[in-house]
Amino acid sequence: MRAMKLPSSSSSAPEAGWFHPDDWHGLRARVPDDAHRTVAGIVREHTAELATVFYDTLLHEERARPFLTHELVGQRLHGSLQQWLLTLFNDDEFDVRAVVALQEHVGQVHARIQLPITLVSRGARILKDAISTHLRQSPLGRESLSLAQQYVGGAFDLALEVMSTAYLRDARRDVRSGEAYRLLSLGQNVAAERERQRAALLEWSQQVLLQMHMAPEQEQLAPLRRSEFGLWMHHKGGASFEGSPELAEIRTAMSRLDNDIVPALFVAARQGGTTTAQLARTFHDEIDQIQFLLVRLFERLGEIESGRDPLTQLLNRRFIPTVMTREIALTRQESCGFAVLLIDLDHFKKVNDGHGHEGGDAVLRQAAELLLDRCRSGDYVFRYGGEEFLVILVDIAPVHVATLAEELCQALRNHVFRLPRDQNLRVTASIGVAVYDGHPDPQRLIQLADKRLYQAKRAGRNQVVIV
Predict the structure, then answer these.
(1) What is the CA radius of gyration of the chain?
(2) What per-residue confidence (pLDDT) applies to 24?
(3) Residues with Cβ < 8 Å from 245, sequence gap 6 or more?
(4) Who has the most CB within 10 Å: 25, 78, 313, 359?
(5) 464 DSSP β-pair partners
(6) How far is it, in rounded angstroms, from Cα 256 to Cα 236?
(7) H or E element that contains 347
(8) In this structure, are residues 300 and 369 in contact, taking their beta carbons and an 8 Å threshold?
(9) For 317-465, CATH number?
(10) CA distance 261 to 279
(11) Distance between CA atoms of residues 251 and 234, nearest Å
(12) pLDDT recorded at residue 318
């Protein structure tokens, strides 16, 4: 069997300090050839069975359910675990650097999806027990059997050591990024964002009262939770003010408005009852209370002007894992759904070549403004790199994602970009779309969107690819 290639990562080699090739080589050297061949043969012969035992056990564990589904196991994870086992117990050409790099990659994935490290240890124990059962049924003598058992246990221990180190390193980095994002997610100007959200709240309340007076028999407007203010508060505001008592009070007040006060207000308005005025006062009191709490939330933060892309003022891409991890958690709790759009401005090199970097920068700034303007308050827009942008559409059903993506593509296509020296330019864009499908790793969703962006470019650009 060939040695497995190094997974791509930000570093060309495992981090110094915990990569000890002598440990791996020493473990293998202590095992006689017959024991080594027996272990490798068991893994080769029973690799599918071992993976089945592993996932059949974990699928019945409550703590594993957020990360595993029968469909996910069948389509991806079952085969990946088999490949991992074959690489770890390779009896042909053992490339220790490739093996260690694989464990590092697995640890990084576990950190991204926030898989409990105790669950990883549980999975290793399941596999060790299963391999040991087969070893006891092998023709190995007592001494060779003992050494083979030690070899299996040692290999899993070394693999978990590397995984855990990578896991903890990446988890600490994500915590730091998450804390920084809590401060940056509100926008460059906190005072302006506060007023914008107050205005969005008041606009919704005025629309409710206007409809109540003019056409109470019609279907009610979208609830506050689904309004511009509600989307912002639930997603961006939730990330910024997580843990604050005011946030919990605002959410409770929003729930009272959506579930009790507004429905009762419309019933009273249709029936012409005497309770309409009293309910209207209750409605106003709730809106005033939310405004008061909103001001209190914003008072916790000052003016924030760092951590953004200096050219477009969009959020820095280092916050993407933090945002996506949170959206995955929200989707699991509420089944609200989200999608990732990767947007690339077509033939951008020609813009720079024909109009200089000053002209290219002007196009990037205006494209960023257009995307922010076209997206909802709760959506996220990032400068992904170069002429690429990444948009996270939150709280959206899959059937609506394609429509919004096409609208963004058309808006960029129709926009007249203003360049220095009174020049104008039209630019198209290619968009790759990936709708969240339940996989716990946010990086996989970005990779899927990137693949579809590449398909859009190969198909002629200036279009959206979603499937």
Answers:
(1) 28
(2) 82
(3) none
(4) 359
(5) 431
(6) 21
(7) none
(8) no
(9) 3.30.70.270
(10) 7
(11) 8
(12) 80
Q: What pLDDT sits at residue 22? A: 80
Classified as helix, coil or strand, 61 is coil
Would you mind telling me the total number of residues written for the chain in this entry?
467
Environment class of residue 272 by beta-carbon count within 10 Å: exposed (0-12), middle (13-18) or buried (19+)? exposed
Q: pTM score > 0.70 for this model? A: no
Burial of 111 per CB tally in 10 Å (0-12, 13-18, 19+): buried
The two tokens of residue 462 are: 């200036």
Kindly state the helix (H) or strand (E) to which residue 251 belongs, with its residue range: helix 245-256
Alpha helices in 335-384 (DSSP H): 348-374
Q: Nearest to residue 381, comparing CAs of 225, 370, 23?
A: 370
Specify the long-range contacts of residues 245-250, CB closer than 8 Å, at least 24 apart.
246/293, 246/294, 246/296, 246/297, 247/297, 249/289, 249/293, 250/290, 250/293, 250/294, 250/297
Query: What would be the CATH architecture of the domain defined by 21-183?
Result: Orthogonal Bundle (1.10)
Q: Could you tell me the residue ranges of all domains in the chain?
A: 21-183, 190-298, 317-465
For 251, the token pair is 């959410």
pLDDT of the residue at 300: 59
